[in-house]
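User: For my dataset I need records formatted as: sequence, then structure tokens, nothing else. Please produce one.
Assistant:
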Amino acid sequence: MIKWLGSRFRQINLITLVLLYLLILAGGIVRSTGSGMGCPDWPKCFGKIIPPTHISELSDNYKDEFIEKRKKKNIRLSRYLSYFGFSELSQRLLDDKSIYEEEDFNVYKTWTEYLNRLLGAIVGLSIFLTFLSSINYIKVKNSLFFISFSTLILVLFQAWLGSIVVSTKLMPGIITLHMIVALLIIILMIYSYFLSKKNKSFLNSFLKKKEVKFFIILNLTAMFFQIILGSQVRESIDQIAIIFGENMRNTWIANLGFEFIIHRSFSLFILALNLYLVYLLLTTKDFLNSNFRIVSIILFLIILEILSGAGMAYFAIPSYLQPVHLLIAFLIFGLLFYLYLLVDSSTKNENF
């Protein structure tokens, strides 16, 4: 079984990557539809493997039952936070009464969140299969095994973190951490996919490689900062949505803080960085045209990302644009990282 999986490592890895990006999209849909608390518990949904389709399937005091469970879990969590030195966060968790305001049952939100979790379980299984298929590489290319093992550990941590997201009722900061871990998992999966295939030299000029490599790293850093900033803007929108409600959606942007202005303006800086990167490659005589499509796709996605961001800003944050905006950001980061691996690999293989 393991030997058979090992021969298909790259295919399993690629399928897992596609599933991961679908999960990012599904997570964005959950956030944009306000379905994050569609299931008040974890890993089950309303205490069931298959969630209810009608409120009549729940007990009369179902809200109190899940609030009590959440309180007990958060008390344990606050102790851990205090133990590791996060006393302020621990106290904030205990003092936040909004965490224990249970939402009414909504079948659409429940099943939106449930399907998201179901896809998450499929991704987890796919990553486990990737790990199993990497066992054959222990003696041949042990880095693949260790990367796959690290990815599996991160996925388990991400699953636990998902339970905390539910327990703390989407507490700001926890969601951002959840996003960072998702980004790390994608990085590791892209890296293992890269190592599993033969990659041709991206550039033949070593001097150009150094300059291109620098600007890719700068791009990656800027995109990471932009994704985190975007997550914080999203957290602010969640809070504003609670205060103003869906009927006042057109006022949400006006009530956002300074982080939104930075996030919006910073996108132009990222566009400028990528335009210069494209210029560097186009002015390199020995640039391999077969890899130009990666850079072209990145540039196209950045323009699309800016347009989707503008669409949210000027059209009252339509819910269908939010998951698309998030997905594109993760796609850009993933492609930039793959581009970095291509350039870095050819730099290491350079003969001086």
